[in-house]
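Thread: Newbie trying to understand structure tokens

Hi all, I'm a second-year student working on a class project, and my supervisor (Dr. K.) asked me to get a predicted structure for one chain before our next meeting. I've only ever worked with sequences, so writing a 3D structure as a token string is new to me. If someone could post the tokens and maybe explain what I'm looking at, I'd be very grateful. Here's the chain:
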Amino acid sequence: MDSSWLHPRDQLVETMRRIYRLRMTTTSGGNLSIRDPDGGIWITPASVDKGRLRPADIVCAHADGTRTGLHRPSSEFPFHREIYRRRPDIGAIVHAHPGALVAFSICRQLPDTRVQSLAHTLCGKIAYAPYACPGSEQLGQNIAATFASGADCVMLENHGVVIGGRDLKEAFQRFETLEFVAQTLAKAASLGKINPLPDDQLAERLLPELAPLPDTAPSNREKELRTQLCDFVHRSYEQRLLISTVGAFSARLDETQFVITPRRRDRLELDPAGMVRATLDACETGKRPSRNALLHAHIYLKNPGIGAIINAQPLHACAYSMTRTPLVTHTIPESYIVLNDVPMLPYHCAVADAERLAAEVSLAKRPVLLVENEGALVVGKNVLDAFDRLEVLEATCEALFISRPLGPLVPMPPDAITELKRVFNVA
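---
Reply by user tm_fold:
Sure, no problem. This is what the structure looks like when written as tokens:
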């Protein structure tokens, strides 16, 4: 469901539930608000369990100074009010204490979003606000002054993060994306040198204008694929194989057509009708496919056996791609059988370098690639086959991270790999 159609109370409750479910806040931590066009501020209450928040719990502080609601507003209402006063363009605020961003806040470091182009574009300017007591007017002044300097994401010294957006959806997506980058950077730091993208690669590359496809009624096959793709996108989100802003899934319809996730749509809000039918140079009228559509089109044209494609940025696999660390899949039989060897490719832009990147894919020999700073590119015979590879990739990477403090990796010996190739027909 498109959350923008919800009442502010419901938007705040649904977003807080999501943040709590993803363990990015605690029962007592964090607060959210939305500014109404009339100047009223809807805000989460003080001293109410964040995991059991109800619409009736939300408080509205009206522009005339009166309040509506069952509870007191959050104790940190002063900084929400001051941010809105200093930044008229901001319509919603997210404040929480997610683990990775708290780690950065207590080390006085800023997450470097230059490791991924979309994160850099979405999160905008990030800056620190000096410490002050929670709930104090001084903290409100410190945070608001940092927002007034042009920041959209404000790290709080020894506290957490405050993020603004035009609406709650944008504020949440910035929040989730910045926490994901911080988590990945923290993981990647244990592997080696982190490689940010050069400035010329940070500019967002858009798809060329696509011609409209003729309007046709979807076949039962297309309806089935749209539903299947939505199901696996939702599963991927729940398992943190992707976040709300990043990741593209597609499935082949015929020799030239495929169905793909839309551009800039919250992955949890995807429904079959919102998916986009596309070809190399056309798409459904009035829709925008993922920026990966060009890449997927070239892969399908070059590989008739491929029935589904996934671009994703799961946490542990991304840590490998940000540090250009080779990934060892000779760990357990499943990893090698499902993934084969996983090469690390130099950075390729999914739009500008689509044809070159597509040439690297092979269902038999290279069904999974890691691309520097872009994460994973996975193909399969069908959607389930591709999704299984994505799951196994991230599970393999996570196991490698868990093994690091335990001792040196002992991979399967060459004769075991030779046997797996023979028994399971690994190319």
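A couple of things are worth pointing out once you decode it. The two ends are 43 Å apart (CA to CA). Residues 94 and 172 are 7 Å apart (CA to CA). Feel free to ask follow-ups in this thread.
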